[in-house]
Amino acid sequence: MALIVFTPVIVWNVQHLVASLAFQNGRATGAYLQPLMPLATVAGIAVC
After folding, report:
1. pTM, two decimal places
2. In sequence order, which ranges of the chain are alpha helices (DSSP H)?
3. How far apart are the C-alpha atoms of 25 and 27, rounded to whole Å?
4. Rounded distance, CA 33 to CA 19, Å?
5. What is the mean pLDDT of residues 15-30?
6. Strand, helix or coil at 33?
């Protein structure tokens, strides 16, 4: 069932030269420790 649901994502990535992986890789580079990020995440969820 999961493969059926995820197949469009795989097809899209193949057609767009794995653009989503390249995007996520770009976000991962330059990452550094942010000790207050968990608090910001919880605050963001609380606002919604």
Report:
1. 0.45
2. 2-15, 19-28, 37-47
3. 5
4. 26
5. 75
6. coil
| Residue extents of the structural domains in the chain | 2-47
Dist CA 30 CA 46 (whole Å):
28
How many other CB atoms sit within 10 Å of the CB of residue 15? 9
Token pair of 16, please?
A: 């767009």
Average pLDDT across the chain, whole number:
82
What pLDDT, on the 0 to 100 scale, is given for residue 28? 66
Q: Give the model confidence (pLDDT) of 24-43 as tens digits.
A: 776 666 666 677 888 988 99
Residue 21 gets the label, from left (phi > 0), alpha (psi -120 to 50) or beta, of alpha
